[in-house]
Amino acid sequence: MIAFLIAAALAMAPPVLEPAVTPKIPPAVIDNTLEVAGDPLAAEQVKTRMFVLVGVNGQGPFRFLVDSGADRSVVGLALAEQLKLPPGRVVKLQGMAGASRVATVHLDSLTVGTSVIPDIAAPALPERFLGGQGIVGIDALADQRLMLDFDKKTITVQDARRPEAVSGGDEIVVTARRRNGQLILTAASVGGVPIYAVIDTGSEITMGNSALQARVFGTRRAPIPRPIVLTSVTGATLTANVATLPNIRIGGIDLAGVAVAFADAPPFRLFGLDKTPALLIGTDVLEAFRRVALDFRGRRVRFTLRR
User: Fold this and answer.
1) What does pTM read for this prediction?
2) Which of 30, 254, 277, 296 has the fewest C-beta atoms under 10 angstroms from its C-beta?
């Protein structure tokens, strides 16, 4: 049984470009055989989020947040100026608190461990809202497997086109569908209510939409709201109300007493989840597992249980 408490009033929201067309995406699944091999990178864990050292255009290392909820990698403004990164086009960026137009810069390459991701157009945003010098997003992870080891505080990145190692017996693998690259789990429920759940390693607070809040609490007396302020990577803010869910079930694993921040944040609409009960699962929940492995190319997530 786990009880999560909101220890801070800030949670960074993922940068997501608003799509012109939302394609139909096949469902992803939990896969107990998913393995991620490679040299683990030492990760700095700030509260529950993971940061790694990466290379930009062969220079560095620089401290970036690994964010599976962001469809774009981001570079801090000061770092972009330091490296004299060439400017790109202005794009519409959707954060937790709304949309804004931001300028991009061009990266010839982004190096994460032994993986080198070429040709990235990254929004440039103030470091004070990023928590680091940048963000590693889905554009850099789309062909990668990613494993977060919360016990060892390491992150392993592997090219998904390489063969997998043999898995052990203490894992639960869930298939997922993808929307804008993010992994959306269907094998999840809250208090017996089936939900969709997005794995969001860039947020330290798990969020729920109003559709989930209505299904869980119904016409019963609503819990006393505990407001918190969420700050987007663009600096915009959104107020959410925290309530404790009795139970979250992910791929056959039960987590009890989980604090969730409820708000109809724009990412729910962008992921096509604004009308159905849904969660953005942050690292406050993910750290309940020993390891979490994500295969963006294969649309699989593996949860390794604590012994």
Assistant:
1) 0.76
2) 254
